[in-house]
Write a structure and sequence with these properties.
The chain is α/β, with parallel strands linked by helices and about 325 residues long. It folds into 3 domains: about 80 residues, Orthogonal Bundle (Arc Repressor Mutant, subunit A), CATH 1.10.10.10; about 100 residues, 3-Layer(aba) Sandwich (D-Maltodextrin-Binding Protein, domain 2); about 100 residues, D-Maltodextrin-Binding Protein, domain 2, CATH 3.40.190. Helices cover about 45% and strands about 25% of the residues. The strands form 2 sheets. Strands 3, 4, 5, 6, 7, 8, 9, 10, 11 and 12 form a 10-stranded mixed sheet that branches. Strands 1-2 form a two-stranded antiparallel sheet. The protein is rod-shaped. The protein starts with a helix and ends in an 8-residue tail after the last helix. About 35% of the residues are buried.
Length: about 325
């Protein structure tokens, strides 16, 4: 037989009350049950815990040494139960997210803000990394989930499509292609291009799709981050091949974006989860809200959507009853 929490509760109550009867009253147990629990505990410990003195019970030397240990055990259990309740009710917790740089900079901060307002006890850690790092960090357990682009089979990871965004050619306003309504992939082959490094999931997916069309892009500059591509385009080094998430950044730097057709291709932004690991209540709440937002009936992600409608849906998921003005 093992020592039970009830036996420890009885021992502490008797030591505090000095009486089996009063200890029973405080715990809502009959005196006979108190006596039985106490005798069983003494038998398991091989120690006499109390001496009877007139009508009072006094702790023996062994009992005095055991009492602080019993109190600490009960306090630790209470703290554990209280902590688990707070985690379940989202009163405290932690959510860690690895996101590709553009999603981390231009999309997720607003959601983090609303979530933090609704659940101030939860710490949100947003890590801006490369596309490749998103996959590796989720695989390694460094984060709860990731937001990025995945291509191919990653075995122990599961992907949920969040939204799709089209590819654009990004260029200075005085570029020859800037006068066109749209450009084709074959037209881009005639110009110096700036794109992601080989092996980047976005580039890999793009090359796979273009190969079936007999198109192969040659880049004069290959970099890790979209921000660098935008900066190099602004510096006059070539035409950037980017997706719609960079629209605001590109236009803020005086650049123009032209949709690319023949064929019109899109990259999928996905929620990256580890199939073998469960999310904490806080992480699941955030990821569910993210999926809910992006499940709205839109065929593609529109970074210029400022009507606030999707935020209403996000706020509903986060438990917010307020109307936010965008």
């Amino acid at each position: 037989m093992s020592i039970t929490l009830r036996q420890l509760e009885v021992f502490v109550a008797v030591s505090e009350e000095g009486s089996l009867t009063r200890a029973g009253e405080s715990l809502g147990l009959p005196q006979s049950s108190i006596s039985t629990q106490l005798k069983e505990l003494e038998g398991l410990l091989g120690l006499k815990l109390f001496d009877r003195h007139t009508r009072m019970l006094r702790l023996t030397e062994g009992g005095m040494q055991i009492l602080p240990l019993a109190r600490k055990t009960l306090a630790d259990l209470a703290a554990m139960l209280d902590g688990s309740a707070q985690l379940k009710t989202l009163e405290r917790g932690r959510v860690s997210i690895a996101a590709s740089s553009m999603q981390a900079a231009l999309v997720l901060p607003r959601m983090v803000k609303f979530f933090s307002e609704m659940h101030p006890g939860i710490k949100i850690e947003l890590l801006d990394v490369t596309q490749d790092d998103v996959i590796q960090m989720v695989k390694g357990g460094a984060v709860d989930f990731g937001v990025g682009t995945a291509f191919g089979d990653h075995g122990d990871l599961s992907m949920k499509t969040l939204w799709s965004e089209p590819f654009f050619a990004v260029m200075p306003h005085d570029h020859a292609l800037a006068k066109k309504r749209s450009v084709t992939w074959k037209e881009l082959q005639k110009h110096p291009l700036i794109g992601s490094r080989k092996g980047n999931p976005v580039r890999t997916a793009l090359e796979f799709s273009l190969a079936s069309e007999g198109v192969s892009l040659k880049y004069v500059h290959e970099v890790a981050l979209p921000l660098t591509i935008v900066g190099m385009v602004a510096g006059g080094l070539g035409v950037g091949v980017l997706t719609g998430s960079t629209r605001r950044l590109s236009e803020s730097m005086g650049l123009v974006l032209k949709p690319i057709s023949q064929p019109r291709l899109e990259r999928e932004v996905v929620l990256v989860l580890h199939a073998a690991r469960s999310l904490s209540p806080a992480a699941k709440k955030f990821s569910d809200a993210l999926v809910s937002w992006t499940s709205l009936k839109r065929s593609r992600y529109n970074e210029d959507d400022n009507d606030g409608h999707w935020f209403c849906n996000v706020c509903y998921q986060f438990g917010c009853a307020l109307n936010h003005q965008m």
